[in-house]
User: Fold these one by one.
Assistant:
Number 1:
Amino acid sequence: MLDADFFRRWMTAAAASVDREAERLTALDSAIGDADHGSNLQRGFTAVTAALEKEAPDSPGAVLTLAGRQLISTVGGASGPLYGTLLRRTGKALGDAAEVGEEQLAAALREGVDGVMKLGGAAPGDKTMIDALVPAVDALGSGFAAARTAAEEGALATTPLQARKGRASYLGERSIGHQDPGATSSALLIAALADTAEADGE
Amino acid sequence: MRMLINVPETVVADALRGLADAHPELNVDVDNRVIVRRDAPVAGQVALISGGGSGHEPLHGGFVGPGMLSAACPGEVFTSPVPDQMARAAAAVDSGAGVLFIVKNYTGDVLNFDMAAELAEDEGIQVAKVLVNDDVAVTDSLYTAGRRGTGATLFVEKIAGAAAAEGQPLERVEAVGRQVNENSRSFGVALSACTTPAKGSPTFDLPDGELELGIGIHGEPGRERRPMMTSGEIADFAVNAVLEDMPPRSPVLVLVNGMGATPLLELYGFNAEVQRVLRERGVPVARTLVGNYVTSLDMAGASVTLCQADEELLRLWDAPVNTPALRWGM
């Protein structure tokens, strides 16, 4: 079973990973966007870890809801509402249980991803974060490691696609041949989840 | 890179402090990033709130004041503001007559303003929204996020602002704003990429002797690249792209807008070419505005925006306005 501390460590691991990869995310974003995806997420996750240190929520749902709210209030751009909604919806779906199982988490994450698709209007194949998140959630039934692989493969698979959502879509065919920064950061978030589970010996 | 800054992290806050020093008639909340006209809320008037990423100055903070915006919410450079900013602005400027959000069609701006509308409505504030999407360089399609909002934002903010100043009700001010957007089209070209303070190098690579056609205002590359053209050739291309999409039925307002690093000497010369093309195409010009209004940091280049103006829109355009960047009639 996964408790509030597990989710806090997941968020901390995600923040560390965003810190490490910020330059790469920004470089990917400069090809088809405006070169700030890394720094924007960095600002958001720094606020998330600060808030979690201050408040220490006592349930998995509360950890993710708080994290989502922080992202909405600090990131801006499309990433703020989209990542914020992902975590908030997932958190709300988990309710106020003190511990949750892996199946419960998978179901809640699916609700979170559905929330993102509804808010952004994106579908798989549009060259967005959805292209990493949907395969990850589909694979979560087979374990955290499978989810990580699926997310990473999903992010890589955005390269040949033409963007149909977000700023990259304004480039039309010129968006082809570049990996999507949003799908890449989504893969980082899922990898942080898998790392946290592995550190636990799950 | 040489920039007149302290450190990249404080660029927006530093600019806001300077804006406050230069314009005591504005109330600038540097910490929460909200710029409000000092006499707000104005009783009986709909309040106009706009915002978006920083780096487009004077848009939007430079357009706060009587006859135009009630408040502006600047985000990080090229990043939309967060919902808390718009909700805070709405609470500060709402007189009970409601607020109108003016939003440029970028996914981030749309999502954050939508979330802000929910927050404001929770507080009992009536909210309406006008989405600006005037850029003909982006092909409309069911499968894209739609056209970008660029130069027409200035027309919408000025004309809807005049309607609000007259005391027109929220649904009328909203309708006027939508009409202006529907009547406006833009096309932009870049002669150089821009450099964001955070990245410190050009956002895309544009070799000497080439230009980008169909750029937006966020340093993203355009739709296509061509060998350098003359001012006259660029005017032909840009104006024809606009007119192809919107055959004019009435006299037009013309905005010849610099992207940040093109001097007025060049912009006025470009305007002469734009006016020539319009004459050749038989399009009467009602009013013309030339200058840097919707910029993209230090990008060189320009955009052309045309708005078909009936007598009512023209009357509202001519109405008094008093803001840091746009001022006439008072």
Note: The mean pLDDT of chain A is 95.
Number 2:
Amino acid sequence: MNLQRVLAIAGKEWREIVRDRLFFSLAFVVPALLMLLFGYGLSLDVENIPFAVVDHDHSAASRDYAYRFIDSRYFQFRGYAGDERDASRLIGSGQVRVVLVIPPQFGKSLAQGRPAAIQTLVDGSFPSRAMTTKGYVTAINAAFSLAAVAQAVSQATGLSQQDALAQLTPIALESRYLYNQSVSSIWSLAPKLIMVILMLSPPFLTALGVVREKENGSIFNIYASNVSRGEFLVGKLAPYVAISSVNILLLWLLAVLLYQVPFKGSLLFFLPATLVYVLCTTGIGLLVSVLVRTQVAAMIVTMVVTMIPAVLYSGLIIPIVSLGAGAHVVAQLMPAMYYTDIVVGCFLKGVGLMSLWQPLAILAGYACLLFAIGYRLFSKRPST
Amino acid sequence: MNADWQLAWRRFAVMLVKELKQLGRDRVLLAFIVYAFSADIFLAASGVSLSLNHAATLVQDMDHSPQSRELLSRFQPPYFRMDGAVGQDAAALAALDQGRAMLVLSVPPQFGKQLATGQPTSIALQVDATNSVLGFLATSHAQQIVSQYGLESAMQRLGAGADAARSLPQVQNDIRVWYNPNQEDSWFMGVAEMLNIATVFAVLLPAAAMVREKERGTVEQLIVSPLSPFGILFPKVVSMTGVILCGVALSLFLVLIPVFAIPVKGSLLLFFALSGLYVFTTAGLGLFAATIARNLAQAGMLSILILAPMLFLSGAWTPPEAMPVWLRGLMYASPLHYYLDIAFGVLLKGQGLAELQPAILGMGGIGVLVFASGLLLFRKQFD
């Protein structure tokens, strides 16, 4: 490999990028803008779920029950509905997601020390939201029930209500949230956004860079020149890796300064590890560009193999351990999952090379493999 | 008048055939369209679940009493998955650090004895909260299990029989989940993935088709031809719409309905008509990017800027309720938001035109707006 030729190719590519001012600025603006938009917008907390109440009982107990929901920050009260038909219309149109139906005799049953039934209708078209909602409903219901039982016990035994409650809840659950004590959603999100954005932008830049020459026909100059395959590929990719490296710093700064996510690990480990990840993602771009002939195909293939897997099979929203068997295999095949371990480990867990050498080694191997395949498939004498 | 129409139709037909031929020659692209609408959707629907599922749990039982065994046995799938016991604290922490466990449940020694004598006791739960939502959910489910068990053992100790619970003033909340009673994640993920893929193609294909002409200079030929700007843009969008609708049909009839038993409660005709409208609307966004961009690289980056927020913030991956208010406003400008309502409305809820009217009007309105301004920009460039 001749360094001078590599530099010549890289210099030419760099000038080409810089001259296209819109493209050049987009290369930096897009990652930062996505970080801002998703950081502020992509909250996974389910709060303010709109709900309505159908109260057939109109007793003090039924109002108390409804108030437990109205007061909760997880629900947003949208008013009482007349009857079930009204309620189903509200759910159907998406105006509310939950309806509580309180039957007649609700208050009376409780007052007589008997169980009372309530029906809750939940919009299930978004299953994870439905499940979270069910969790909230069950929790509020349990708290209400416990208070009602404690009252009954205190009446029957003469204990104070507080003592009765203590008797009924002999076990305390002491939960400790590790790595994210305040269970803050942006802390868990921002590091993973770095992962997603570095999966989106670098492959796109790279793939288009190589295919452009194919489509314009300028690649024939390369075919005819004495530049070797390796020299061409390295020179071609270098400017995009450089741009992405600047973006690494930019995204890291945004996470730490703007979103105030603690960075507990070491930058000396994080930055080289991230560079390895960027080499992987540029490698994907390279592989795509070698395989396709048109820029359209390059754009689409890159988008489908990077964006959606980066969200679904990376641990961004769904932890890898919760994936089904097929998706689990896909996750193992993608570099995103390994880098998620690294970025979360560096930011929140404060672990370093000792714990993370394994994913790092896999990423490094991945990068080598991608470049090797890209090198094999890239031919200076294409058949068509 | 009649001749005019005939001429317009013939121009349209010629352009349409040209577009389809151009697309058909790109074999890699075609193969990829088929892959995206079949295998990719299959994977998303079969393996991905956004719910708390099988949270990997390790147990540290220092009591080994019948009580502790009984309590721990209540941590069951689908929420929890018991991955075995761990002895040392250090080993538990290492498992959490490396992401091998999400939860560690520790039962202290004397737990059973304390419970039997009515002394207050506690159990500890360590949660990996790097995923804040799941951490919260897991804790709240654990809380349910623990307090239910506590209540039962308290009632037993206080001398009430096994059927005491039936005669207590408890509220039994019967929760019914509509439209997807078993909360099949595959229904949601499958349909959402299909919509996402359709969106990716609907933005990229027309944008690329347009910029390519610019880059190669063939747009100059089109401009000097008797075609109007509309006559150039319209066949592009129609051909791409056709291709994407075929893709949607492919994923619906080959993957989603036969494999995942997604119910089709409403009219398929309505669904396809509205899907056509959606692709049309979204294509307008792609054309918009194409008129701004001068080459495909620019168009590509601009498309990311359009597509990524559309997909992330549509409500397909995250619940819209969770978004801040200003962003929810922005969401109403995204056609995908309406298309989600429409797709789930027609397929799962069996809604018809009447119920979907607001969504259709919103989507149509955006379509007209984007298309008109795109056309205006396009015309300006060549004046």
Note: Chain A touches chain B through 136 residues (CB under 8 Å).
Number 3:
Amino acid sequence: MNTLDLERMAVRDVNQRLHDDAAGTNTDQQYEILNPMGRHAIAVGLNHPFDVTVRGHAGYYCGSMNKEATVTIEGNAGVGVAENIMSGTVHVTGYASQSAAATGHGGLVVIDGDASARCGISMKGVDIVVGGSVGHMSAFMAQSGNLVVCGDAGESFGDSIYEAQLFVRGSVESLGADCVEKEMRPEHVERVRGLLERAGIDADPAAFRRYGSARQLYNFKIGNIGYY
Amino acid sequence: MDERKVRESATFPPHVIAEIQRAASEGLYYIRGSGAKRAVPTFDDLVFLGASISRYPLEGYREKCDTNVTIGTRYAKKPIELKIPITIAGMSFGALGANAKQALGHGASAMGTSTTTGDGGMTEEEREASSLLVYQYLPSRYGMEPDQLRKADAIEVVAGQGAKPGGGGMLLGQKITDRVAQMRTLPKGIDQRSACRHPDWTGPDDLEIKIQELREITDWEKPIYVKVGATRTKFDTMLAVKAGADAIVIDGMQGGTAATQTCFIEDVGIPTLPAVRQAVEALKELDMHREVQLIVSGGIRTGGDVAKALALGADAVSIGMASLMALNCNAPIYEEDYHALGTRPGSCHHCHTGKCPVGITTQDPELEKRLDPELGAQRVRNYLATLTLECQTLARACGKSHVHNLEPEDMVALTMEAAAMARVPLAGTDWIPGWS
């Protein structure tokens, strides 16, 4: 285990070490980052299958643009955790602030607690599993991927959604423009089951409801004027 | 009929009547490409005071007049070295076809300057063609990949665009081909809308953290630009500097677009002329002029425009629409295809349709064939060379051995509006309206 202590090192040095090691020959793939103390941009831009554990609360953009690595945040995460993740996993054991997994292209993001507003905004293929609830405007303009919410969803859920799939076990305060409830078929139950297993969350996949795009706003036309 | 008695209304000229009737028929705003068609004060309203006795000119073709500029001297480990102070502005693959992107890349590379990506990410052809490539980081994040960030020579965080400050981008369904759809993770054929603001930051404090993130991902190597559409230019420039930008890109309202609502193109933003001056004032107030580089775009067409922007304090300019015109945008060829679009060469703004008669703003393979990327590259190179020569010759005429030595004192204004906006005296007077 490689230990990187942010009381002794700057964020710059920690990230440089991770980037250099990815290109180098260090055979120890395990890292722990101590004393994050809400600092921003910790463990960003990783592109190697490292196993990185941040022991404490992280600030903005922790684990952002991750490729291949597994990043675990033992605490809460600030705005934009796992932003634009490409692959690998980012796991928050606490709560996540706004825009969690924003624009993520792939990989898995797990938030054990709640996620705030705009969780999964503009998601482009990432899978997101939230143990708690998500705030308003979550999955706004969500293009692809899956968002599984074990708690409730706030207002305007899935507004202007494209082809992402949304699953909620609890209540949805309101659906956004062009987002509708859809039939939960067996293949969707299996999909949720698989995502929950990957996330390590124990919940009944059959208890979830599915939401997606009505595909009525895909082209500008006068019939949609009420939405503009 | 006595023609003398027939008078057009100034309030309702034919194009306004046509738009009212189109709106009445369709019930939706008009979406189009290109830039503002209305007249605004421009660099045309300024002239240089060539040297004579009180100033000493340099010999026009012999004496040295350098044009190089370095972008990213503030923080970046690897600043960009440009041989000329003219860059190619961000235009997406999707808005433009692959041949156009290649032509721009090769043409700019031949002149030692940079091109810029756009919405939808970086194509391999574009990277290969461009020796210096600026990667735009846009609100939509379509095609945004960290490997592309690392492959880029600089990163441009786009907070706004001159053609549509406050509005997002558009790419209509007819241009969303399989390749474009795949790059943007969107269904084919939809009318794609790009968000108007970033999904994970909302103000200047957040922007500072965003810039930190991008620097961390790229190990502080790349210059980071912040691009804004010209509106509250002084404040925006100051905030971008305070957020840690290496360079500021100010895009005036004459800047073009592939598609947006006409009301944005014509009714939002301020002209490039006052925007340059305001940005320079902001940089000077922060003691950051020349430390944070200023790149100006929006309606730059001639070497005179370049020289005037530099004289007002810009470090470089960026050209979009004019570079497309170098590739034959609006040229009088394939006229029947212009007519089929309901327009004619010189007035075409139909980039949004994907039916570009000259093969630039299209994804149609047959139309794209009309633009040979090699010939296009030569035309872009020639155009950039001409702009550079014109800029140099004007600088020499003002006695300057580097184009950056041009200064506001070298110019006067021909109109009160331009004098007030550029803050240079009205020709033949010492008067700067609103100032002296």
Note: Chain B has a mean pLDDT of 95.
